[in-house]
């Protein structure tokens, strides 16, 4: 008996149906992974558990998700190799790459950007830094590859009509979490007290939320706004529409309250982009939306004016176009430094995310005076950042991604189906909201991941019916091999820096210089030997303990351990002047203790090397001055003090050191005059230095028999440092002299307190 036609049809199509089910199951893994990342990256943080509980934790999550995607892709390719053979697979590979590049020019540009990042990492001034990313930034090669994986995964999923909707919904929920938490912080009822130290500059009114910084919160919500509005517009139920519109208002308020000028500019730019794309798509919003939008905007603008942030809000509004504002001047200096890096390293840049390592050579005294202390890790302009760190090759690849994505969005907005046109308007506005704030700031992993997903959706411009996708089967063994390789990479790229951060976080909670504190720092340095911070902190701990130690042999042993740790730090980052100045400081202490073993010339050479790496860093200059003074190299110290005083005339420590040198050389009057200038300059938190300067002034005044001035100067020294016994002795001696010579007071005037 022959099977009927319907039976034959089912049998003929059974393999393809199984393949479709298998492909759907495979797509669900990628689908789930990307959506989890898009939700978790903005909201996931572990403050208190890690030194950097925000961006570092998010990047670790991104790399983990990217490795899952890579394992899945590898399993598919391995299965193809198993079924077709290695040689046929290799013969087909060039054709597949060319066809994919023609079909997906954005993807080809993304691949070129990744290859540029690989080349820049290899040629970096510090390759390990470029691989893992700089502290506080973490935008190294592993992050670049992770973001690229999100682009390719999103593009592979964009054939589904539900993909953009799911991206928007997940992003909207993440935005609700971030905005709600920011609102708690603005209201001063933060349940978890997640704060970021720089927010204190704005009287604690800025909300860092789950992203760790007000600017990042603002940038993320700016990107989400067009997607949230799109969700509200297409919602079938009144309750859903009200909920999405309420989230729109809350997001706008948080953006306004963030005091982020980049976020404000991003909202304006995204609005203009949405209007332009709406005109191109021939879509018109309902008339009722006009009054609703106007009411939300008015309410959002009025609310900050009736809260404690009113003064800060108005001040930031005035600074939007004020190039003389300190933050504007800082950005101009950072941009200039980045462009000079491009001039010196035009092809590949200084290395991915290596702006912080290269910056000391481009530091200016003007920038240091505006924003004192530290070394910036970003150019605060992603275009300049990419050019500086990846050179012209990376810049051209990034520019191609930008142009091709804009073209794809425009094409979908004009020629797509009615549903995709509206989605293109939202996606295009969100991408503009990503780009514009980053021209005066920098992207975060949360915003960059969302941008990659939206670009991947836009890159799927070819009609679905015109493209034949192969349903890749994955055998158990190919999947096991893919997971094994991904696991090996995870243990290399994620676990070591994670263990180091956890150890340092535990060390910070342990008593300073305790055995547990030192042991945890040693663990961190061992887990991530390429990162100079951990061995430098370990060396600093040994140095402080050694300087406090009374027993000479124990002190020497501690100094030896400090030197070993700091030598490892310098070897990991030869360009880092601050770690080298610590090493020179240890050598100075060793030379003072045992000059036969460590010569003064060795100390001089090490300090000079440190200063040459960062000649306009006041911290390095002053540390070098004092280290040279400690071993009796007064003339070398005087040269550096003059260099620092000329660069920073309002900075007190170099003048104080010049006064101390003059006092040691017996030029008492010159010392007193210089010290009187020094004590009235800015100390920048150097309380100990201020105490010693007042004490030196007291000594100089006493030597010149100006006993009242000596007494007053000693009193000032004791205000800064009550335990300074030398100042106490000078004060008591001056009091006795005044009691024995009453006439001295009349001849000295009112003193100089």
From TrEMBL:
Membrane topology listed for this record: Multi-pass membrane protein
Organism: Eiseniibacteriota bacterium
Keyword Transmembrane helix belongs to the record: yes
Boundaries of every O-antigen ligase-related domain copy: 249-398
Pfam families linked to this entry: Wzy_C (PF04932)
Transmembrane portions of the chain: 29-50, 106-125, 137-154, 163-184, 217-233, 240-257, 263-280, 292-313, 386-410, 422-455, 475-495
GO CC terms of this entry: membrane
Location within or outside the cell: Membrane
InterPro entries: O-antigen_ligase-rel_domated (IPR007016), TPR-like_helical_dom_sf (IPR011990), WaaL-like (IPR051533)
Protein name, per record: O-antigen ligase-related domain-containing protein
Alphabetically ordered keywords of this record: Membrane, Transmembrane, Transmembrane helix
